[in-house]
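Ticket #4471: structure export looks truncated?
Reporter: QA, pipeline team
Priority: medium

Steps to reproduce: submit the single chain below to the structure queue and open the exported record.
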Amino acid sequence: MNEQVMSDHILDVENITLRFGGVTAIHGVSFHVNRGELFSIIGPNGAGKTSIFNTISQVYRPQEGDIKWKGESIMGHRPDYVAGLGIARTFQNIELFPQMTVIDNLLLGRHVRMKKSWLAGMLWVGAAKKEEMEHRRQVEDIIDFLEIVEWRNHPVALLPYGIQKLVELGRALAMGPELLLLDEPVAGMNLEETEDMARFILDIRRELNIPMIMVEHDMGLVMDIADRIMVLDFGEKISEGTPEEVQADPNVIAAYLGSSDLHIAAE
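Actual output as written to the record:
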């Protein structure tokens, strides 16, 4: 692999294996993510998709293999350290603080970027005041970007489900990520909400140039917007390539999508 190809990779997952007792959740999986790329992971329930996210975040520690961020191994580091590197994620099940407002939930995402002590923040003077004002400005920019201005002061618990999913995305963006891990971003959404989320995901790639890894069951969405796709089955990679290549792979058709479902999703 030449130096130019290496420089295009922001993340390299190398032959990782993850076991829980006698159960192997991930077996010898390798892939990379390029800068500015939307990389999607698909597979049946239990295929190991979310476990991949948890290994990248270092919530789980693979027994074998390596994970490299910009060429440097992140294995053995704490999840907060990984987040501080610029790897942010959303969750399949919304993990917001329901009694807090939208803006306060997004400000929590800025925590990894705050430099001043909690005491200085309480006093709210000088450099600490200036820092918080800058964090609030960036949060307001995200609120504008996601078009949720009218909800900014509402408690999250009172918001429609689709808006809550956008707030979760906004909190991840507030962390100032260089890589976004999207865990089923349109799960539970209706068609209109799904289309809105797809538009924002594409805007993140086009306008913010943030690479993403997306785990998703909505095959129509994946085939429409992903640059490359990896297919997992029982913790093993069975295919990787462009949407067109994956759709044509007989291993994918046999193991997961099914011939009729595959062509319908591609239309």
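Status: closed, not a bug. The export was complete when the record was re-opened. Leaving a note from the reviewer for reference: The domain at 1-86+177-267 is CATH 3.40.50.300 (Rossmann fold).
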